[in-house]
Specification:
five-stranded parallel β-sheet; Enolase-like, domain 1; FAD/NAD(P)-binding domain; alpha/beta; 10 helices
């Protein structure tokens, strides 16, 4: 730690900003440079799809806080290469030679490889510029076609319906969010949108988009043609790991790191959405693409980089605002899990648990924040609980382990 003079962070993301702050709080008094290709002061990205507007961006922290922490925030500097001589090369800034580099570059939207995808008004949503373009299109009216029924697509659908726009969601799986929350919860969320007038087409792919200059039609794999004034594509993401693809660092759907965020090159570290890692509350090695987790992981990696070795072990948390409701979840289920719905589940209010061999691995719900938080404790403790107890509305989740309904 005493030999470190300069740490460069590539990406002013949630993870990057958190890492910089943790380095200072950990006592590092060398130079910290935080580089980003964008021009906006680092901002929170989840609201982009939840409100679908770019004005009023919520800053991660104030401009003055960077100066107070002596963090050099260098916007408009896009890193283009890391060299074997331990240099960072930028597109429009001088090359630097930091003692360590942290990649907090996040992910980018996966592109849809069909004809017509380059037409005007075919949009993706990952940054403030995308949100600004989408906001302008939504205020011109519909119809709107959303390709992909993930959280981003459904959040935009909710915003558009609130504006009175005709909305169609096209999803290749049998239900939206099928691979994320399973068919039971996916069915409830599907019903939530059906009830509010969203048309959802499942088990079909988009094969082409047509129009003169702007998109006018979307062609499906069953031959149907959907009219469209705007199309938003949300078919997943790809990690921004370009800087290390030829560097010899291990990659596996992202940048592979150890428990503290270090790659197999001691000069390069990674945090946030781009990082592939083991996590005590996940049963598979992988990336965790949640805002809350990115901040936590960034902070622990930042501390580790300056000598205070830490590990992010908090249960992953995700939320999604749709209409006037908020979906919340702790942990992560697997497709083979048993999903238990508490009796009385409705599209606008439910509680669900993911179990494997009786152990609670995830809890999710809409309009049940207290119970979701209580369920988090079951995930944290590794409790085993009977499905009957979880299904029964009379079961007090906060007292369940005490009463003997659960054991570690």
């Amino acid at each position: 730690m005493n030999q470190l003079q300069h740490i460069a962070i590539i990406g002013a993301s949630a993870a990057g900003v958190a890492a910089a702050g943790a380095m200072r709080r950990g006592g590092f008094d060398g130079t910290i440079t935080l580089h980003d290709g964008g021009r906006h002061l680092p901002y929170e990205r989840p609201p982009l799809s939840k409100s679908a507007v770019s004005r009023g961006l919520k800053e991660i922290q104030s401009a003055t806080s960077y100066a107070e922490l002596e963090i050099e925030l260098l916007l408009g500097q896009r890193a283009v290469a890391l060299t074997t001589d331990r240099e960072v090369i930028f597109d429009s800034a001088p090359t630097i030679r930091p003692d360590r580099v942290l990649l907090a570059t996040g992910v980018s939207a996966r592109r849809l490889p069909v004809s017509g995808a380059e037409l005007h008004n075919v949009l993706y949503l990952r940054d403030a510029g995308d949100a600004e373009a989408l906001s302008a299109e939504l205020h011109r009216g519909g119809p709107l076609v959303l390709v992909g029924g993930g959280f981003i697509g459904l959040e935009i659908a909710a915003v558009a319906r609130t504006l009175g726009i005709d909305v169609t969601v096209v999803e290749t799986q049998e239900r939206p969010l099928f691979n994320v929350v399973g068919p039971e919860v996916g069915g409830l969320i599907t019903a939530l949108h059906h009830d509010r007038g969203v048309r959802i087409i499942t088990g079909r792919e988009v094969t082409a988009m047509r129009g003169s200059k702007a998109v006018e039609e979307v062609v499906l794999s069953d031959g149907r043609v959907l009219p469209a004034a705007t199309v938003v594509v949300g078919v997943g993401v790809v990690p921004n790991d370009q800087l290390v693809r030829t560097h010899g660092v291990k990659l596996s759907g992202g940048v592979v790191v150890d428990a503290h965020g270090q790659t197999d090159d001691p000069w390069i570290w990674a945090a946030g959405d781009v990082a592939v890692r083991r996590h005590r509350h996940l049963r598979r090695v992988g990336r965790i693409e949640h805002w809350d987790t990115a901040q936590r992981h960034g902070a622990t990696v930042g501390s580790s980089m300056v000598g205070d070795l830490q590990e992010d072990t908090a249960v992953p948390y995700v939320w999604s605002d749709q209409y006037e409701l908020s979906y919340q979840a702790f942990g992560r289920g697997e497709p083979t899990d048993q999903v238990v719905l508490r009796d009385g589940a409705q599209p606008d209010e439910f509680l669900a648990f993911s179990l494997s061999e009786g152990r609670v691995h995830a809890v999710a719900g809409i309009n049940r924040p207290r119970d979701v938080r209580a369920g988090r404790s079951l995930v944290e403790s590794g409790a085993t609980v009977s499905a009957e107890a979880l299904r029964d509305p009379a079961t007090n989740l906060r007292r369940l382990p005490v009463l003997g309904g659960a054991t570690k």
